[in-house]
Amino acid sequence: MSRLTPLYPRQPVPALDIPTIGGGRWRLADRRPKNFIMIVFYRGLHCPICTKYVADLENRLEDFERRGVEVVVISSDVEERAAQSKREWKLEELTIGYD
Question: What is the sign, positive or negative, of the torsion defined by CA atoms of 17, 83, 61, 74?
Answer without folding.
Answer: negative
